[in-house]
Design brief:
By secondary structure, this protein is α/β, with parallel strands linked by helices. The chain folds into two domains: about 1-120 and about 265-295, Alpha-Beta Complex (Quinone Oxidoreductase, Chain A, domain 1); about 125-240, NAD(P)-binding Rossmann-like Domain (Rossmann fold, 3-Layer(aba) Sandwich), CATH 3.40.50.720. About 25% of the residues lie in helices and about 30% in strands. The protein contains eight helices and 15 strands. The strands form three sheets. Strands 3, 4, 5, 6, 7, 14 and 15 form a seven-stranded mixed β-sheet that branches. Strands 10-9-8-11-12-13 form a six-stranded parallel β-sheet. The protein has a two-stranded antiparallel sheet with strand order 1-2. Helix 4 (about 150-160) links the parallel strand 8 and strand 9 (about 165-170). Helix 3 packs across helix 4 (about 150-160). The longest helix has 13 residues, at about 120-135. It binds NADP nicotinamide-adenine-dinucleotide phosphate.
């Protein structure tokens, strides 16, 4: 079988398709034929030297999202051969077959295709879990930074579902227009002055603008950047949130997709042999959706 391996730190040129041994299925795992996965910022950070996401040993297989088909499960497994499934799988999704812990898997509803399915788990579960951390009360306001991104977009849709008064922050006027059309909420551009919000969900690493947070406001970030001392001083608390696998949260997310309450955006689809082009594309600023890899 084939896998995309990263052989060193570097740009897209360090990723390539190689033949590897098929994985061995352990008890409690399900063998999944991967149909599609996605490129997430964490994958690019892993490849980039000097980030917090270090690689312990090369060659390395990256990738966190899986949409695929069950090849084999345990006799008493909920998942049967041929089932369409979805997983948040940290990490090693960029290969044709993965042995996935059963408690990371979910059946992929018929109304979600593999390409869209592969765009969902990491981004949407991250948004759900980080938003929950803010414990937003009725009447409080929320600003989501990086609203044009996948996590930011999901956070805005989830906040709207919860009837939270939410606004977004984007990089430029072009993104502002796209996001206003997508989400129908107030959008601000990075270089304009903003009101202060009760809560901030940062996905863009904008952690030095104390004026956007009310005094004693709360801020959660999913970026790897440091919160500035000015923001720390103003806030009641700030927190870096890290996603964790949760079948229950993935189920909540998928139910919302099936009801049309959450939407995924696909920017580009590449075959595994085009991994270098896929990585180049995903690394560009201004993408309006996920870069998907088909296996
Ligand atoms: N902690 C965790 O567990 C966890 C889990 C998932 C993701 N993450 C992290 O969360 C972040 C967002 O993920 P994602 O998948 O949503 O990435 P994404 O789709 O690339 O979105 C990031 C968005 O932030 C925007 N942005 C960057 N700098 C900005 C600025 N100064 N002003 C306004 N907008 C700005 C980007 O715009 P441009 O495209 O124009 O640059 C992009 O639209 C990444 O850093 C990712 O690694 C963390």
């Amino acid at each position: 079988m084939k896998a995309i391996q990263v052989t060193n730190y570097g740009g897209p040129e360090v990723a390539g398709v190689q033949s590897v041994d098929a994985p061995i299925k352990n008890k409690g795992e399900v063998l999944v034929r991967v149909v599609a996965s996605s490129v997430n910022p964490v994958d690019i950070k892993h490849m980039t030297p000097g980030t917090v996401q270090e690689i312990e040993q090369f060659p390395m297989i990256l990738g966190w999202d899986i949409a695929g088909v069950v090849m084999a499960g345990d006799k008493d497994s909920t998942f049967q051969t041929g089932d369409r499934v979805l997983a948040l799988h940290p990490q090693g999704s960029w290969q044709q077959v993965v042995s996935v812990q059963e408690n990371q898997l979910l059946k992929l509803p018929d109304d979600i295709d593999f390409i869209h399915g592969a765009s969902i788990p990491l981004g949407a579960v991250t948004a759900l879990q980080a938003l929950r951390k803010l414990k937003i009360k009725q009447g409080e306001t929320l600003l989501v930074t990086g609203a044009m991104g996948l996590v930011g977009g999901y956070a805005i849709e989830l906040a709207k579902q919860a009837k939270i008064s939410v606004a977004g922050l984007v990089r430029n006027k072009e993104q502002k227009k796209i996001c206003e059309d997508l989400f129908d909420v107030r959008m601000y551009v990075s270089d304009e002055s903003l009101p202060a919000f009760d809560t901030v969900f940062d996905t863009a690493g904008i952690l030095d603008r104390a004026e956007i947070l009310q005094s004693k406001g709360r801020l959660v970030t999913v970026s790897d950047d440091k919160v500035s001392p000015e923001v720390e001083e103003r806030a009641l608390w700030t927190e870096h949130n890290f996603v964790r696998t949760s079948q229950e949260d993935l189920q909540t997310i998928i139910a919302l997709f099936s009801k049309g309450k959450l939407h995924s955006r696909i920017e580009a689809v590449y075959s595994m042999n085009e991994i270098q082009e896929a990585l180049k594309h995903a690394s560009q600023n201004g993408n309006n959706g996920k870069t998907i890899i088909v296996f």
